[in-house]
Amino acid sequence: MTEIEQVTVSMDGFEVNSYVVHAPEGDVIVDAGAEPEKILGAVRAPVVAVLITHAHADHVGALDAVLRETNAPLYVHPDAAEGTGVGVYEPLDEGQVLDLAGETFRVLHTPGHAVGSVTFVVGRDQIVGDLILPGSVGRTDIDGASWEDLEISLRKVMPLWEDGTRLYAGHGPVLLASEQLENNPYLPPVLP
Ligand SMILES: [Zn+2]
């Protein structure tokens, strides 16, 4: 049974989440913003892949160290690849299904907060990066961001929400999708 472990690290006092997905046949790291030793400390099995939701500095600051330590391949959307500073990577694509360590990671291209942002669907749960934040969404007043794209991306992930779906966001606690539907004023209305 796969378990998604939240690892909150601090980048100069600013908290950002990494995730270590404990899959049946190994671990997968998602995002590596800071404190690589803390991220690696949560690892329990060989790391088969490192995935990046988007390439903002607070999500990739510890990427070099994590890749060096794990020797795992990096998966990132091509639009975000340059921002990682890593030249060799596996390109992620909309709708792609990754089979990693005995678990399935479905890739949704979800730009808006950042170019090349992706959401990983694992079972009924979603690792959303900064697409959705507690009671809010990722900033769209920054370079490369677009509210129009963000809304399209929200409308892509929301129809997949089920009872009990958890959202693993880039900042803040693990979220219940049903609670965000009730309390997050930034989410577009669900279309009939
Ligand atoms: Zn960001």
Blueprint (SSEs and pairs):
Elements: E1 3-11, E2 14-23, E3 26-30, H1 36-41, E4 47-51, H2 57-60, H3 63-70, E5 74-76, H4 78-84, E6 90-91, E7 97-100, E8 103-109, E9 118-122, E10 125-129, E11 132-133, E12 136-137, H5 147-157, E13 166-169, E14 175-176, H6 177-183
Parallel strand pairs: 3-4, 4-5, 5-6, 10-13
Antiparallel strand pairs: 1-2, 2-3, 7-8, 8-9, 9-10, 11-12, 13-14
The structure holds zinc ion.
InterPro entries: MBL_Glyoxalase_II, Metallo-B-lactamas, RibonucZ/Hydroxyglut_hydro
Protein name: MBL fold metallo-hydrolase
Keywords: Hydrolase, Metal-binding, Zinc
Would you give an account of this structure?
With 192 residues, this protein is an alpha/beta fold. It has one domain: Metallo-beta-lactamase, Chain A, CATH 3.60.15.10. It is 22% helix and 34% strand. The chain has a 6-stranded mixed sheet with strand order 1-2-3-4-5-6. It has a 6-stranded mixed sheet with strand order 7-8-9-10-13-14. The radius of gyration is 15 Å and the shape is globular. 44% of the residues are buried. Zinc ion binds next to loops.
Strand content: 25-35%
CATH topology term: Metallo-beta-lactamase, Chain A
Strand order of the largest sheet: 1-2-3-4-5-6
Count of helices?
A: 6
Q: Write down the secondary-structure element order.
A: EEEHEHHEHEEEEEEEHEEH
Q: Rg to the nearest angstrom?
A: 15 Å
**Global morphology:** globular
N→C terminal distance? 33 Å
Just name the CATH architecture.
Answer: 4-Layer Sandwich
Q: What ligands can be seen in this structure?
A: zinc ion
Helix content: 10-25%
Specify the structural class: alpha/beta
- Kindly state the number of beta strands: 14
The name of the CATH superfamily reads: Ribonuclease Z/Hydroxyacylglutathione hydrolase-like
